[in-house]
Amino acid sequence: AASEKSPNWLVSCQLGGACLTAGNPAEGALWFRRSHSECPNAWALYGISCCALLEKDMDTAVEYALQAHAMLPEHNALAHHAITVLHRAERYEELLKLEATLTEAARTQPRVKMLVCYACVRTGALDRAEAILWENGGLIVPDMQEGENFITGLWMELEEAKAARDGIPFDRAAAEPPHIFDFRMFAPKKKV
What is the reported pTM? Predict the structure, then answer.
């Protein structure tokens, strides 16, 4: 059990989180590393990854996100974090390799599916990307917020890549995403 090595690992982990929240990722990472040395735990690794993200150190963020996920592969939040960090690092082939190892519950999270779809577009797996995007009538991301237009951009990139593959011109300015994927707040008005 975690408490067998040191009863202070959780305190150190909490102090790392407090530093991270206060905007001091460098000090937070020190506390998370201390927590992990007191008792190896996925939450300290996750914290180091988050600190590295804020420091824009993508290699470290990926390394620790993957280590955290490996310690608790059944934990959906750590799987989601690892996929997200790989996406932000633009390491799409690694993202797809990791996705193949995820539990069914993690693999079917809407945001994970959205990022996997994007990785498929970026790696040229356009048919798979289209299948993911249109599964069950269209990918619904329940926590998508108004103005968050990632899925709109995903649809645009997929359509643009398909057009390039098929030798057809594609004009983003004139394209009209399906309603289910259109989260733009200021979309161009349709000509009547």
Answer: 0.91
Give residue for tokens 């998508």.
144
Give the residue carrying structure tokens 């000509």.
191
- Token pair, residue 140, equals 């619904």
Please check whether residue 132 is in contact with residue 139, taking contact to mean a CB–CB distance below 8 angstroms.
yes
Going from the C-alpha of 121 to that of each of 26, 68, 111, 145, 185, the distances in angstroms are: 35, 27, 15, 23, 24
8 Å CB contact between 31 and 11:
no
Q: Within the chain, which residues score under 70 in pLDDT?
A: 1-6, 187-192
Compute the distance between CA of residue 184 and CA of residue 146 in angstroms, rounded to an integer.
8
89 token code pair: 């690092």
**Rounded distance between C-alpha atoms, residue 133 and residue 156, angstroms:** 12
- Please state, in angstroms and rounded to a whole number, the distance separating the CA atoms of residues 5 and 172: 57
